[in-house]
Write a structure and sequence with these properties.
17 helices, two-stranded antiparallel ribbon, 5-stranded antiparallel sheet, alpha+beta, globular
Length: 348
Amino acid sequence: MTQLAEPVVRHWDFPRGNASVCLLARFGTEHGVPERRLLAGSGLTSAQLADPGALVDAHQELQVVRNLAAELPEAGLAVGSEYHATTFGIFGFAFISSPTIRDAVNLALRYLDLSFTFSIPRATLVAGQVHLELDDSTLPPDVSRFLVERDLTAIHTVIGELLPTGVPLTSLGFRFAEPSAVDDFERIFGLRARFGRTANLATFDATYLDRPLPQANPQTVAVCEAQCRELVSRRRTRAGIAHDVRERLTRIGAIAGGMPGVARELNMSTRTLRRKLEESGTSFRALLDEVREALAEELLTTGALSIEDVAVRLGYAEASSFIHAFKRWKGITPAAFVRSRQAGLPSR
């Protein structure tokens, strides 16, 4: 089994553009649900939806999803079909411009917090098949099925847009029980789905990964990816308990102290800190990973420290562990990252 790029985020609680909320609101109103009912309890206004540069909190979008699902509980597949590559702005243009499906998938997983997903996707290669799994373990139970349907349909739609021939699935399974409208799944995905499985899993032939994309452009994808990195950096400025933890982890020596040290700084027990982070949709490990990634890029860019020294500063027992983590974050080794910066090239 071979892991494609692992998603950088491991939870859904990150700031988002408002394009998805706009799409949800438009879909609902087109199907007879007043906008005020769709936005109820979210704290969002029509003016915020009209501002293309506005960011929304994940919990705000989740409330809109919850309102829509309450009104149209069987609409998850139909909503997901409305998401296209262009829905995702510069992020979408980045994978449209990628050389192959493999590059597009890896890029999408690296910059997942520019997406609108609530399920966390993971892609692996198993016996000549790509296994695309959607982890729904952190989703609220009342909207879990709706979100899995929406997220997987959106992914399937976008991947299908990248190649004129499409990318046919070879199998499809869901953890939830069989719904009444099973024909909709076959119409959208092209095969009969199975339900009550152990995972939300779609598979397709791995030969599609290396098919060249018709709109591939190395200059465009480099520019788009640079903008994606900048957007991610800005959006990862968090509020609340996650922000407090992240801020403390950037202090000298804090990483070595781990969760107990940060909990003491915040005058709470590790158990309380863990619970508060779970309530925020994140974890100490995920925030530590974010901080390490940001610090690694900063320390390597200065050129003052060796890769081994950076690994020590970031709390890794061995440089090999740091190199593995860095490849997961950036898609390249620390040495390749340093060379790209020295040459003035955009890093991956």
